[in-house]
Amino acid sequence: MKSFLITLFLFVVQIFSAQEEVYANGVFNFEENKTQKIFTDHTRVRQQPNVNAQILDSLQSNQQVLILKKDETILKLGERGSNWYKVFYQKENKTSEGYVWGANLCIGYRNKNGYDFLFGISKTIDKRDKKFNQNYKQNIASVKVVEGSSLLDEVFFETGSGESLSYGTFNVESNHKLQNIDFTLKAVVSGEACGIAGYDQYILFKDKKLIALPQLMNVGDADIYHHSEEFIFPNDKGGNPNAFIFKMEEVEKDEKDREKVKRLSKTYLWNGSSYKLK
């Protein structure tokens, strides 16, 4: 009996230890000796990689920093988990260094036509699933457009849980020929495991304004289930400059390995400044 209780105790300890183990999201994995940019306004620079360490400075969004060192210490707030990074930067003609939390850095950033575009995770919020009557954590990402030190616009969108933050990209796509659009931005986050959703967020840039299109989701579970969504934009080869098309395909196999395919297509009309379903 005593042996059984000891075994049970060790088993429970292992469970709680596993639950307390903190992992860093892959999107916040930054290379040493590479430049990065601050995403979160008022990001605190600390003397040591710890939330209780002395605050040395506060950095604004779009501040460029050089990654000196990735510390092994990981901090998780909400659904965002990241290492601390030692950074070097120049501010007001003075050079400094210290530690910042990696989740306050940009996942990606681009410069186009004199504007800086920043992509990052803004926060984690609590949401409620009415179908299953339970709460869950939801990450909220955003893209900012900055001119000099001035924030011109910002759009927010969901990016799933921390499991969907294994990989991220941010690009400018100039070949979409919608009327009166300067260019299109595309922010992507995705997970590595089966059944973990990835999200594609297209954002139109026009007259210093950002316009977020409906979010696309892609998810698969081996060869049993696959759901994909995409937009078809007008381009150099043709298409209506006043419309773009949404396409969805869902493939699911039943217990007899028979495929059930569902497809959906719908058109969004674009009037040069906003969109609506046809």
UniProtKB/TrEMBL annotation:
- Designated name of the protein: SH3 domain-containing protein
The signal peptide here is 1-18
Keywords from the named record: Signal
- Pfam families in the record, alphabetically? SH3_3
Lineage, highest ranks first: Bacteria, Pseudomonadati, Bacteroidota, Flavobacteriia, Flavobacteriales
Q: Key word Signal present in the record? A: yes
Q: What Gene3D superfamilies would the database entry show?
A: SH3 Domains
What is the scientific name of the source organism? Chryseobacterium edaphi
Domain of life, per the record?
Bacteria
Q: Provide the SH3b domain boundaries.
A: 43-105
